Amino acid sequence: MTQQHPELSQEQEYILFAYECLEASRVGALKIRDLTSSGPGGTFQARLERNVFDENLVHRLEQLELGNAALVFGRIDRVVEDSDQVENFHIGRLAVADENREPVVVDWRAPVAEPFYRATGRDHMGLLRRRHFVVEGPKLLALEDELFGEGHLGVGQDDGLGGDDPRQGLRGYSTLLTALGRNRTGQLGDIVATIQSEQDEIIRSPQSGVLVVQGGPGTGKTVVALHRAAYLLYTHRFPLEDQGVLVIGPNRVFLRYIERVLPSLGEAGVSQVILADLVPDVRFGGRESSNVARVKGAKKIAKVIDKAISDRERPILEDVVLPVGVGFARLTVAESVHIVKAARRRYHRHNQARKYVENEVFESMAATVRSGADAEDVREALQGTTEMRAVFERMWPLLTPAQLLHDLFGSKALLKLAGSGILPESDYVSLYRERSSSIDDVRWTTADAALLDEARFLLGPRPRKGGKIDDKDEIRTYGHIVIDEVQDLTPMQLRMVTRRSLSGSMTVVGDIAQATGPLAPNEWKDVLEHLPSRKAPRIVGLSVGYRIPSQIMELADKVMHAATPGLRAPRSVRDGDESPLILSAPSQDSLLAQVVERAQVLVNRPEAGRVAIICPDDMVDEVSTALDVANLAHGRAQAAGLDQNLSIVPATLAKGLELDDVIVMEPTAIVADDAQGLRLLYVTLTRSTRSLTVVHHMPLPDAML
């Protein structure tokens, strides 16, 4: 790569012209929007069409707001089919046209742009040249050309690299290294300019079915999944935009970290959530042991919840006799048994059957009134009485998911009734927790989200006045779902996600070697058995590590092979400038002192980027206090994400993040604190793009020696 490329100034002029066209499009869209927002007049159809048109314009305007992202990042030259003419296309973040509607920039997702990512020396896909731009916004810094055809090496041919060298076959290698060498910003950036062939194949793969992407640390699996979501929305805009795309992340720190990727690709309407966000009307923040989380995550708990609902569908204990007019109405135990059984047969969802139970009870009671009262007379006379409310509360109470589980977990008797024969006694007893005085005081745990969702599905929405069901009370489905760090989801959580899939279309990404959940899988079939199976799943792998220098991967691989002996580690494409630094502290106090000293060195380096101290979860306060004493500004990842130059990251929240420099504290404590401790340590050791420091007082785990 050289800044003296003979066509540098020419390409710079073209890029500036593209920005002018983009601004003209934005101004034009604003003018049209002003014309369509003149007032509420006209027919209903006209107003509806105007609103739809306005929504499309708003989406277009969102696309046109690039921020600091580069508009144009490459160009391809190819021979026009059946002619000797050469045509070229500039590839960019979104499509831009000039005033004559002639294309100036081609959207990276368009079919014509595919050779920019896929062409190799063996299959140049009609290309003569592929040009990579190194840009900062509209400023062109450098060019890199790859030439194809006879007499040119191209990509993927014998370039002197060994067959096992991970650099072989990479496109725009110098451009890629430039991008990888930039400091982190605390937010995940898109890779639209540097997508490699194996990544592009995944991004452009067919929508249908479940696609599993196995990728080790630094292979880009997260950005590949997000780019795939953007590609599918571009390719299947209708109906996918209406059906919705859902992205599920492992925690809020991670969501904050990835939140700008899709908007930078022109897709601002995608829902990005953690599982708890999908459960309405409750508050989270509770804690529980890993053993309880394991019990709640196993598939058998669904049967316990189903049984707990059935246990609330009961006949009365003794006949009920109540006055109606000048006579009496009676509901016998035998008749209540019949009504409950009939309701169970007729309805699959509990709350849906309540109206039927009420009608049948009043019909039955009306038949016992000698004065000839009908069911409506009995309903009018008795419905609001304390006695009848007690009857329905006994026979078929209307329940919310929170009410059901609050009652269940707060009663050892109900737990035994629901869990006996399904779970071992020790498991269902472990679910007991002291009942709160008010359901509003309950702080539900992460594992509770899937159980509340299961109850919501089985109970169904509570009927509103007039017996109507509000659509927003139903569980929403999506046309495509992306799950990141899927290896950490329990069977119940996977069941929760599957419930939201409209057609079984999913992209799920993860790494078995990084599985640290309460029911960590050992192979992908353990995950796939709980996901949609309408079409055979596809499992693809990312083999090249782009983010992590080879020196760091060498240390991390030792831990990975000890934690998951059968898995293959990704191959790093680059060497770092520093080998991992391991510092031994003679005492706990000196441990903190060494961490602070090393952090000061890293944040004060001329090339300082984002620095993180990854520590055992229970050491966050200690580390923060030590940094305060040293007047070292910092943030806590739980509260501020990675917005600060120096952040403290609990080990359990490190997954999926990337930083320039990382300090890992007390590896042995990280291993001891988690059921999948070696896998969690592997996660912490693979977060850095530049330097890794390990500071310890306790002896290092054998896997690191």
Explained architecture:
The relative contact order is 0.10. A hairpin with a 5-residue loop joins strand 3 and strand 4. About 1% of the residues have low confidence. The protein has a 6-stranded mixed beta sheet with strand order 3-4-2-1-5-6, with helices on both faces. The longest helix has 29 residues. It is α/β, with parallel strands linked by helices and 705 residues long. Among the domains are: 175 residues, no CATH class; 146 residues, P-loop containing nucleotide triphosphate hydrolases (Rossmann fold), CATH 3.40.50; 155 residues, P-loop containing nucleotide triphosphate hydrolases (Rossmann fold, 3-Layer(aba) Sandwich), CATH 3.40.50.300. The protein has 27 helices and 22 strands. It is globular, with a radius of gyration of 31 Å.
- Quote the distance from N terminus to C terminus: 40 Å
Strand order of the largest sheet: 3-4-2-1-5-6
Count of beta strands: 22
Q: Give the number of helices.
A: 27
Could you estimate the helical fraction of the residues in percent? Answer: 25-40%
Low-confidence stretches: 154-162
For the residues shown, what is the average pLDDT?
90
Helix/strand-derived category reads: alpha/beta
- What overall geometry do the principal axes of the alpha carbons give? globular
Percent in strands: 15-25%
Describe the main β-sheet briefly.
6 strands, mixed
Gyration radius from CA atoms, angstroms = 31 Å
GO biological process, one term: recombinational repair
InterPro entries: DNA_helicase_UvrD/REP, P-loop_NTPase, UvrD-like_ATP-bd
GO molecular function, one term: ATP binding
GO cellular component, one term: cytosol
